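Hello again,

I reread your note about wanting to compare the complex against the isolated chains. To keep things tidy I'm splitting this into two emails, and this first one only covers the full assembly. Below are the input lines as submitted, including protein chains and any nucleic acid or small-molecule components. They are followed by the predicted structure of everything together. The single-chain runs will come separately.
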Amino acid sequence: MLSTNRIKLYRSLQQKKYRQKYGQFLVEGQKSVQEFINQGWTADAIIVQENKSVKFNSEVEGVVISASERQMSQMSNFKTPSEAIAVFKTRNAKKLNLAKSIIALDTLSDPGNLGTIIRIADWYGIEQVLISELTVDEYNPKTIAATMGSFARIKVLRGNLVHTLTPFLGNVYAAILKGESIYEKPKPSAAFCLLIGSESHGINPDLLKQLDPIPVSIQGKGGAESLNAGVATGILVDRLIHG
Amino acid sequence: MLSTNRIKLYRSLQQKKYRQKYGQFLVEGQKSVQEFINQGWTADAIIVQENKSVKFNSEVEGVVISASERQMSQMSNFKTPSEAIAVFKTRNAKKLNLAKSIIALDTLSDPGNLGTIIRIADWYGIEQVLISELTVDEYNPKTIAATMGSFARIKVLRGNLVHTLTPFLGNVYAAILKGESIYEKPKPSAAFCLLIGSESHGINPDLLKQLDPIPVSIQGKGGAESLNAGVATGILVDRLIHG
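Full-complex prediction:
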């Protein structure tokens, strides 16, 4: 049985301050919850809607609690609550593997964009995403939802971009509105880092000065001033991986 | 002065049924409003927040009304309301130019994705987006916001994809999870159409049967099962335009 206090506690995890206080976050949807379990994340609770047939391919019985539709909607971040909502312990990555490719994000503010980019990393087999201190919380429910389960497989490190990337030996590319054409760049032969800036302000000029990346651009010809940060990341990663 | 009834009326335009009833929709943000004015859309009202310096480079004085911060937030779709919200008349495109490229969307349900795709079209100079009858309303405030003003420049036609695209003479490509590699396709030499399916169900099999498009895929190697519809559209359009 799910007490009112427990529902309040879980619902509070929609807010960053409570995620940080309790070291927990929410994952919605049977498929996404299963991905986290498969990848060895620790579920403190899995709440499933009564009368819905929700099954997991793992030993999770000890933490499964059933709840009414009304209770599910009290905890859910979505208009149509999922049939399963789980509470997992957050993980704080300490360091990245500098021999492997990285997507690095400077002050991204949109939680959906962050999630979309984590999903792109997973699609192309880039296992690590570095986010600046001021980037939106990676455990935001909208971010987790936008990753469609990819969050469970990708290492996300929050830290100082200059300190973390200075020892990186591969090419560092930066998405810039007026950079060099990505279509004329040879495909990197080793691990690379792609640096993406905020939706409204681009990449911090100090960061560009200190990391001295290769500035790259996507060529357009229409009226739009820019592309969505997630879309730009997808196009550039596709060019860096496939040439 | 803005009456309470007027505020109610404008706020109702956040809902599809009232947009359809009144033939009007909302645009938020000074820059986006200016784009619509520049492109010749008819503004029935432009509400600007009092004590904010909001100016337009056009003759719009007749329709400008000032409002308090509280009134702005009553009309706004966002947590932080814009300094300008305008009411424009909807336009219903009747036909597309079949000699020019088209992005066609089958049953897209996410308003943000639709907006992102309209912004991609504008970036690459593709002037027309065809959406199936069941695609989310193109005048949804989240769609309009995600286009970042590009909506004002792109022709969006809602209609039957088979009927509209059957006379199209250029190549029709369809984004399919297990299609042919986009990297091995030659760049189309003439106008093309790119067909994108719904986020959860892909493209309707009947549509594929009737239009017989060239099935194309983006090659991944990680764990994600798919890419976000907007990201996939960006990558495929980039390959079709730049090879």
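For quick reference: Chain A touches chain B at residues 112, 116, 119-127, 146, 148-150, 153, 183, 218-228, 230-235, 238-239, 242 (CB under 8 Å).

B.
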